[in-house]
Design a protein that fits this description.
alpha/beta, 6-stranded mixed β-sheet, 31% helix, 14% strand
């Protein structure tokens, strides 16, 4: 389950049909209903239909074949007008080939034109927040307005593999602090007195890069979605101004979620 806060900016009000384009027959139909968060619902579908991909392999199926199938599926659903194509993160699972969502998404950026691409999600205990901020900042610079970042605290694997990924340095209990750090990196701002602010640590691409290069802010960070299979995401967001649908963490900057 994925949750977000404010709708991404859109030229159409919530519930209004997208404007028709003579070059895009999918968006010329009159039976489209646009929801700025959930996406475009077409025809009699009860909701906009997203894709969550695991690049499934299995007996007799190679990783190359599984990834080729993911690429073809992304092309197809992009042509058909689907709203989102997200990639899961799993490790040491012979039937699942999505061990690096960011790498697969980088390929899919060049294979698609309209559909939003995202991670569903990046498991923060497995990665330093700076790495996640830079990977998805790079993706957002490749495809502005088309990248989503879903994050979670599950291992995405068995505990032995989780130990190999984390080297015992972090645990799920560190998730609120990691999430706050990620949001600060994406926004390019840490509070006064924070060691990263004093030390000049920042994510590139990102807002600080624009500032240091003397240009108006061009970086638009991807919306951050908090994944959850329990009420933990709601409790993790109690310290933020964001509602339950946009769970954050204590200490996260205000206004982070729907930029």
């Amino acid at each position: 389950m994925a949750t977000n806060s404010k709708p991404p900016r859109t030229s159409n009000p919530r519930g209004a049909a997208p404007q028709a384009s003579p070059e895009d027959p999918l968006h010329s139909r009159e039976d489209l209903v646009n929801d700025a968060i959930l996406g475009t619902r077409r025809g009699t579908a009860p909701a906009a239909i997203p894709i969550l991909d695991f690049a499934m392999a299995g007996r007799g199926v190679t990783a190359r074949e599984a990834l080729a199938g993911s690429i073809e599926l992304a092309r197809l659903v992009d042509r058909r007008g689907f709203t989102r194509y997200w990639v899961a993160e799993h490790h040491a699972m012979p039937g699942v080939t999505t061990s690096s969502p960011a790498m697969l998404l980088a390929r899919l950026v060049g294979e698609t034109h309209r559909i939003r691409l995202g991670a569903g999600g990046m498991m923060l205990p497995n990665f330093p927040p700076l790495v996640v901020a830079e990977q998805f900042g790079l993706l957002a610079s490749f495809a502005p307005g088309r990248i989503d970042l879903g994050v979670g605290r599950a291992p995405g694997t068995d505990m032995a593999t989780a130990a190999a990924l984390r080297r015992g340095q972090v645990s799920p209990e560190d998730f609120p602090a990691q999430l706050g750090e990620l949001l600060h990196f994406l926004e390019g701002h840490f509070p006064d007195g924070h060691p990263y602010k004093d030390g000049g640590v920042h994510a590139v691409p990102g807002p600080v890069q624009d500032q240091e290069n003397g240009i108006p802010r061009s970086f638009a960070r991807p919306p951050v979605w908090l994944l959850g299979s329990s009420d933990y995401s709601g409790r993790a967001g109690r310290g933020c101004a964001a509602p339950r649908r946009a769970s954050g963490c204590r200490g996260a900057p205000r206004g982070q979620w729907g930029r």
